Amino acid sequence: MNPQERQQIAQALADxxxxxxxxxxxxxxxxxxxxxxxxxxxxxxxxxxxLGRYGEWMRRFPTPQDLAAATEDEALRSWEGxxxxxxxxxxxxxxxxxxxxxxxxFPTEAADIRALPGIGDYTAGAVLSFAFNKPAPLVDxxxxxxxxxxxxxxxxxxxPAGRREQWxxxxxxxxxxxxxxxxxxxxxxGQLVCTAGAPQCLLCPVRxxxxxxxxxxxxxxxxxxxxxxxxxxxxxxxxxxxxxxLLELQPEGRRHAGLWRLPxxxxxxxxxxxxxxxxxxxxTRYRVTRHLHRAAPGTRPRKxxxxxxxxxxxxxxMASPDRKIINGLISGSRTR
Length: 336
Ligand code: SF4
Description:
The protein is an alpha+beta fold. The chain has helices spanning 3-20, 32-44, 47-60, 64-69, 72-78, 86-102, 110-114, 121-132, 141-150, 160-172, 179-192, 267-270, 320-329, and strands at 230-238, 240-241, 244-249, 260-261, 264-265, 274-283, 286-294, 305-308. A four-stranded mixed beta sheet has the order 5-1-7-6. Strands 2, 3, 4 and 8 form a four-stranded antiparallel beta sheet that branches.
């Protein structure tokens, strides 16, 4: 693809976005904090879920100062239901860095934005282009698919060589005068037109330049073979007393660090206990099955475990599967 073609593609995309771009709350603002929050939320949470939570979250933490001043518990609690809690910890760390290093003013330079905790190349590119209208490269899964098809590339997009190829192209394809619309268009084209299953090439604004349009573009992008799903199984107890429900605070180093979960026991320890329910859910490449048993009377808290009063459950941060199963079972639980 020569420089002139690249420019034409970038311009066609920007024009298409001005005519067809969808309206989202984060597209009505150029506030870099609001844009950063939307990008972090959208990383691993579906669009409808983010749309349902974003406004409320921004009202609670409208500036970096507001999140920087919140406790980790408050931040985790506010993120419940969005999953992947590492994101809100990073967001809070970024807010604290903005307050400490930049006196609370969101930095405008690429190097300063990239130096914030939890900000990778994609997020930096999104903030720079969407908030400050600066020409900054950006590649996510949608953009990678569009690029792979435009170039009819057979390099696996999730391989190191594929990533280098994608980012090199993103650098070469920058729109110098309308980067906000252009970057938005790239992502939106991947979401709406150049979709994973069946690209709608007849509606595509860059069809004229696409090398894959007549070569079964649905086969692209090529990806490395998928990693196998790993099955995980664990055994938990439900113990409700007059003091509350027994929960375990997850320590640093565990995936749910800072969140409260039902106490875990070994399979042998629960074998004589009453089985209450099973719960199955998927997290990344893990398929988790948990077996919940009613604790024996007189069960004592272990290290990291505490009784949480039932009326205080709403205030503590809890892993979503735990809140779900507790909400469903607690009313029917016998107090011991
Ligand atoms: Fe994707 Fe088809 Fe457009 Fe090519 S022409 S970029 S395959 S939608």
